[in-house]
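for the writeup, i need someone to sanity check this before i put it in the appendix. the sequnce is what the collaborator sent (i think, or maybe the updated version? ugh). structure was predicted straight from it, no edits. if anything looks off just tell me and ill rerun, i have time this weekend
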Amino acid sequence: MNRDENFQNAWFVDYTNNISERLSEIKTFAYLVFDQLDTNSNGVIETEELLAALDSPQLSEREKSFIMFLLANQDAISETVKDSTIPNSISRIDIEAYFTMIKSLL
């Protein structure tokens, strides 16, 4: 893996937008690439799929920082709805519920 040391924080580095906007960007990214990340097409994104995405040359460093956000918060995101029998997997419903909950706390 060839990464800039600060890529995992790239989602937060641009101070021209607020946290709520950054979280919206991450949510939108997760929706847009959900099917691409769900490589086994089981309807959820699993840890292995997120880790594999970090090695993808097709994703920018910023997008990889969004993946890191999803990985770092994977337990909390997957526990929001608990709609899958696969541990720590993220569904589209999880994404919507988690980001709605987080934004309500801001």
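Residues 37 and 88 are 15 Å apart (CA to CA). The chain has a mean pLDDT of 87.
thx in advance!!
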